[in-house]
Amino acid sequence: MVKVTGGGRGMGAISAHFRYMSKNGRLEFEDDRGVRDTGREAMSALLEQWRFGGSLIEENSPRREAFNLMLSMPRGTAGQSVLQAAREFARIELKEHCYVMVLHEHQENPHVHLCVRAESMDGVRLNPRKADLHRWRETFAERLRGLGIEAEATRQATRGEGRCYQSLWQSSAQEQGRLKRPASLIKSGGAYRRNRVGALEAWAQIVSALRASTKAEDRELAARISSFLQESTFGRELAAQRDRAVHSRRPMLGTALSLPQAIQDLKRDR
User: Fold this and answer.
1) Which of 106, 144, 180, 265 could be stapled to 151 by a disulfide with Cβ–Cβ 3.0 to 4.6 Å?
2) Is 156:162 a contact under the CB 8 Å cutoff?
3) Domain range summary for the chain, segments of one domain joined by +
4) Three-class secondary structure of residue 68 per DSSP
5) Full-model pTM
6) Of 141, 40, 37, which Cα lies nearest the Cα of 89?
């Protein structure tokens, strides 16, 4: 996962994020030059470099002066491998920018917090869009594979997932026991529905072509795809909706008419 978790509008916000990333200087941080350090004094010195290294960053700014990224892998992945992949990712995708990164291993999944200065050394401002984020995920996954770790940069809609990720402030508040209302873990809304309709329609065409094949292995793959969709987040969501609507048994996405019916269900509910 590569996610933009926020950004700093001025040195006040950037300083606060540096403190969070490094746990007030207790964790080792690494900058774009490969310099690694710990401690509050070293962190303060790096912040001063950011403040004056290029266009002056005021304490409070009307525009975003830095972007906060998080690069994450599931539990069980070696933290140092995640850090090395993040290091290589940053050298490729953020090579004209100042950045600092810190590895976090105290939570269940190892992840790297990376803060990048919005203005590059050439004065060009970073403005990541969806296409950029997907390319970043692909680059991160490629660097992980280069280290012998299986990783793919597939979109949630393609995987049939709809998971929401907590904002950085929510994660911090939860760690401190201050989060009063847990955030929803599942996406919803019109855009979510439209994306899932598109993904299901694409899968339906693939399944239809595989079922029509004369090769047994193709027809077996069609059944495996249907089973995969049935167990996906939106597959389970559709099953629950159908159960509530008609009080019948859970629909099986592996049947011949189930994928088109699932698409119609999503279109009707979006």
Assistant:
1) 144
2) yes
3) 2-153, 190-269
4) strand
5) 0.65
6) 141
